Amino acid sequence: MIALVQVIPPIDLRIGGAELDTSIRLLILLTVLSLAPSILIMTTSFIRIVIVLSILRQAIGIPQVPPNQVIIALSLFLTFFIMRPVIEDINTNALQPYLNNQISDTVFLERVTLSIKEFMGQNTRKDTLKVFMDSANLDKEEKENIKEIKDVPLSILIPAFMVSEITTAFQIVFLLYLPFLIIDIVVASILISMGILMIPPQIISLPFKIMLFVLANGWELIVLSLVRSYEGGP
């Protein structure tokens, strides 16, 4: 425990050049930690990954395997893997200068927000963003000031990004469902032609779907596809 404390660098929080009281520091830290799960879900690739992996179990026909804990853990690690360039950019341009007292609190938050906005902007559908922009009822002056993705308010960009991620995830799931659906149809047709009506087709098709998925290196292909889906944006 002592070694862990020594590794963590001291964070000097200041407002207007004055150092914050220890109790206020603790309050701010606890607030950030309590919001961390929501921030991770709203502004990263976690949404797309967890939806694809969760519905994939339904397509195979084993909705409880892998268990939810495994799906969440795998989604988190893939999220950190995909978000690594963003994390490194925040660490280099925002966190390290802030810890070295080279930038103020305001500049630190601006740089962190800019890095996250760039990632969300690259993976947000233009038509979805336009819908939220129109629904926000911005006045003419506010619309004219929005020339780049960094100028878009987070209150508009975050929901647009989340809807885009859900849409993309369902598109991926649709393509994943097709081969398993074909196997179910083929097995059901064979059973009907043989006059076997008492056995559910899912029981017979499940081993074939698992075998097909394993032989095709399904987990590797899906993980690779999810990672590559963030290379060029939506």
Structural commentary:
The protein has 234 residues and is mostly helical. It has one domain. The protein is built from eleven helices and two strands; from the N terminus they run αββαααααααααα. The protein has a two-stranded antiparallel ribbon with strand order 1-2. A hairpin with a 2-residue loop joins strand 1 and strand 2. Helix 3 packs parallel to helix 9, helix 7 packs across helix 9 and helix 9 crosses helix 10. The longest helix is centred in the last third of the chain and has 40 residues. The protein is elongated.
Q: What is the gist of this entry?
A:
The chain has 234 residues and is mainly alpha-helical. It has helices spanning 2-7, 22-43, 46-60, 68-82, 84-99, 105-122, 126-135, 140-145, 154-193, 201-215, 218-228; strands spanning 14-15, 18-19.
What is the share of helical residues? over 70%
Number of strands: 2
Tally of structural domains? 1
Biggest sheet features: 2 strands, antiparallel
- N- and C-termini, Cα separation: 44 Å
Strand content: under 5%
What is the chain-wise order of helices and strands? HEEHHHHHHHHHH
Rough outline:
elongated
Rg over C-alpha atoms, rounded to the nearest angstrom: 24 Å
Question: What structural class results from the helix and strand content?
Answer: mainly alpha
Q: Order of strands side by side in the largest beta sheet?
A: 1-2
Uncertain runs are: 1-20
Mean pLDDT: 77
Number of helical elements: 11
